[in-house]
Specification:
alpha+beta, single chain, 364 residues, five-stranded antiparallel sheet, eight-stranded mixed sheet, Tachylectin-2, Chain A
């Protein structure tokens, strides 16, 4: 009997230890058990509204009488001379078979009266005899006038030419008779404007009169064709003083308004889809930043106005949203002339395509 009790105690102790271990394992397993599914919630996901496209500005055509309404007028520049709108044909002798050259002058009062419904169209610009003193024979490869700007009676013009070996631009001076009886182009100085790219039919098509200088701006300033664009500064004696940086901007710059009191101006920024192969436009940063209007989003054409800031050291973008024009069905409109019309907006004119159009664009 002495050996029985210890064996029984040992067996009992082992059974008790085994039971305790099982309880510990069950407790651990229960403690670390993690659900495999998260509870379902009904919190809605907020919707991000799509920004509305920019509003495009409509144009109001201003009908012109003959010969100004002809496609052959090819108006390539426009500027105010006092209260007269001066229209510059690319070939000023178009209406007289080259025997006489003319500018065309339209009174601001008539334009305002038409827009206010007080005067019926068409409006008849007055021809201003233009003495050119053989500009055509003095410039090799002459291809007509491209821009005009006034400072009082003094005027400045650019001419485009295609001599052998490429394109060239030229800057000339002129003077208007105060009674509009005549306009004389001074050919004693014909200042060359070097092109900034090897592109056909491209030259300096924009003029600004700034203090004691005249600024010319090249037509093509896109990254692929002109990665470091420059504006040319000429003295009033038509001697080139310097160049200043101009922004890289896709498509064409075809004309600009005069500077306002803060040195700002609006320029036409235009793309005819057929020019894409020549201009090779890259990313449109303005469209990416400000969006495209309804008709622009459905077309390869671009018809818009862009605001710039002039300073002595550079020309820069102001950051204002472009004014996009409501595109017309069919062909793009080759806008090549622009002026401000007081605080109302702008006047624009086309060069040939799809026809001669003088139009009012309201300020947004």
């Amino acid at each position: 009997m002495k050996n029985v009790m210890p064996r029984v105690s040992f067996v009992v102790i082992m059974l008790m230890l085994t039971a305790a271990c099982r309880q510990s394992v069950e407790v651990v397993e229960t403690a670390v058990s993690i659900p495999t599914r998260l509870p379902v919630t009904n919190t809605p996901i907020p919707n991000t509204p799509t920004p509305a496209p920019p509003i495009e500005q409509p144009i109001t055509p201003i009908p012109l009488a003959q010969p100004a309404n002809s496609r052959n007028a090819q108006f390539s520049g426009m500027a105010w001379y006092g209260d007269w709108l001066i229209l510059l044909p690319q070939y000023p002798g178009f209406a007289a078979s080259g025997q006489r050259d003319f500018l065309y002058a339209l009174p601001k009062a008539d334009i305002l009266a038409f827009l206010d419904g007080e005067l019926a169209g068409p409006l008849a610009p007055s021809p201003v005899p233009m003495e050119t003193l053989d500009v055509k024979s003095g410039i090799a490869g002459y291809e007509g006038y491209e821009a005009i700007a006034f400072d009082g009676d003094q005027a400045y013009l650019t001419v485009e030419a295609s001599p052998r070996g490429g394109m060239m631009g030229y800057l000339l001076a002129g003077r208007m008779q105060p009674d509009l009886s005549g306009f004389v182009v001074d050919t004693t100085i014909i200042a060359p404007i070097p092109p900034q790219a090897t592109l056909s039919n491209m030259s300096d098509e924009t003029l600004l009169v700034v203090e004691d200088a005249v600024v010319t701006i090249y037509e093509a300033n896109g990254a692929a064709v002109n990665p470091s664009p420059q504006a040319h500064l000429y003295g009033r004696d038509l001697i080139l003083q310097e160049t200043i940086p101009f922004p890289v901007i896709e498509y064409r710059i075809t004309d600009a308004t005069a500077l306002d009191g803060d040195g700002r101006f609006w320029a036409i920024n235009y793309l005819y889809p057929g020019d894409k192969g020549k201009l090779r436009p890259g990313d449109d940063r303005l469209a990416a930043q400000f969006g495209q209007g309804k008709s622009h989003a459905q077309s390869d054409a671009v018809e818009r106005l862009v605001e710039f800031q002039y300073s002595e050291n550079s020309v820069t973008l102001t950051g204002a949203p472009p004014i996009q024009l409501e595109l017309a069905p069919g062909d793009a409109r080759n806008w090549e002339g622009i002026v401000r019309l007081d605080a109302r907006g702008f006047l624009l004119v086309t060069d040939t395509f799809p026809q001669t159009i003088l139009a009012f664009v309201p300020a947004p």
